[in-house]
Amino acid sequence: MRLTLLALAAGLAAATPVLAQPMTRLTFGTDWLAQAEHGGFYQAVAAGLYRQRGLDVTIRMGGPQQNPAQNLVAGVVNAQMFSDGFSVFNFTAQAIPMVAVGAMFQKNPQVLIAHPGQGNDSLEAMRGKPILISTAARTSYWTFLRAKFGYTDAQIRPYTFNMAPFLADRTAIQQGFLTSEPYAIQQAGVQPVVHLLADAGYDTYSCMIVLPRQMIERQPDVVRAFVEATIEGWYHYIYRDPSAGNALIKRDNPEMTDAKIANSIALMRQYGIVDSGDSQTMGIGAMTEARWKSFFDTVSGAGVYPATLPWQTAFTTEFVNKRHGIQLRP
Questions:
Q1: Distance between CA atoms of 34 and 80, rounded to whole angstroms?
Q2: pLDDT digits over 207-232, tens only?
Q3: CA 204, 106, 313 angle in degrees (round to 5)?
Q4: Which of 200, 221, 237 is the last residue of a domain?
Q5: Is residue 12 part of a domain?
Q6: Co-location of 35 and 90 in the same domain
Q7: In 61, 112, 295, 318, which residue has its Cα 20 to 30 A from 255's Cα atom?
Q8: In which domain, by residue range, is 185 found?
Q9: Could you tell me the pLDDT band of residue 22, with boundaries at 50, 70 and 90?
Q10: Is the pLDDT of residue 15 over 60?
């Protein structure tokens, strides 16, 4: 009888499904409307890479009415994408404990754009000439241009994210993103001269994952899972079939076209935006203290931050530089 009961109990145990562990929900905020520059995150959702690691990730799309820093501080999102080191140092300067845990872009895509045949074939040649830039640029990459190339605030003209003034004036120079404005200008019939600031020494990381220090301390396994799944997402998006991620991008942003996405992916590959430099040996997402120091020295030397700012607390390399996913590179 005892054997019968034991056998029955074993049979019931075998027939009873094991309850799945609850998924950890996480909301990640992007810095703008859905686009190829966010492709690795969307690919990780579409391919189930987050779910494989126990994460139920929702991407909260950014846009003109969004304030990424505010969303992160207020807890609207658990983690947020930021496009340059200024955003992270600003938190540090205000003693807000937010930390960068990975940089999906080794190169910042910021560019200056000019018309051909106007003598603006180098950044040095643009010194002293009027340049259309946004208000936000005055306290970010413009400080680099002032420090390295001798630009002055007298050159600044307001940029309102409308390309009409540039297209109407062959002498005009304006800001842009490598994967955005140049393409639109080409579609308008102009082959622009494009200068990638990263290739001229603007060495801030971009497409960074930033989250609260408290989350790192209390949920390091969740942070690691999110970072590593994101890294895998970027390898798949850049080097393999990005169609699943693209479908989600177009769902969130119906104005995004296949041609625009294809152009952006091609440029990210061509210029090594995602995978170049340190990421070639350390893996996508790589960050180094030496490079963070180089960027801080540049911007603090330009007077943006005091030299005493504890810049080392703005980032951690705990979750990157481990060659994770590097086998996915062709």
A1: 14
A2: 999 999 999 999 999 999 999 999 99
A3: 50
A4: 200
A5: no
A6: yes
A7: 112
A8: 110-200
A9: confident
A10: no
- Straight-line distance from the first to the last Cα atom of the chain, in angstroms, rounded to the nearest whole number: 62
Cα–Cα dist 41/30, whole Å: 9
SS3 sequence of 91-120:
HHHCCCCEEEEEEEECCCCEEEEECCCCCC
Do 176 and 223 fall within a single domain?
no
Which residues, 6+ apart, have CB-to-CB distance to 245 below 8 Å? 39, 40, 42, 43, 44, 45, 46, 47, 233, 236, 237
pTM of the model: 0.91
- Judge contact between 202 and 109, C-beta under 8 A: no
- As separate numbers, helices (DSSP H) first and strands (DSSP E) second, the chain gives 13, 10
Give CA separation, 45 vs 150, 201, 207, 229, in Å. 44, 34, 17, 9
pLDDT surpassing 50 at residue 107? yes
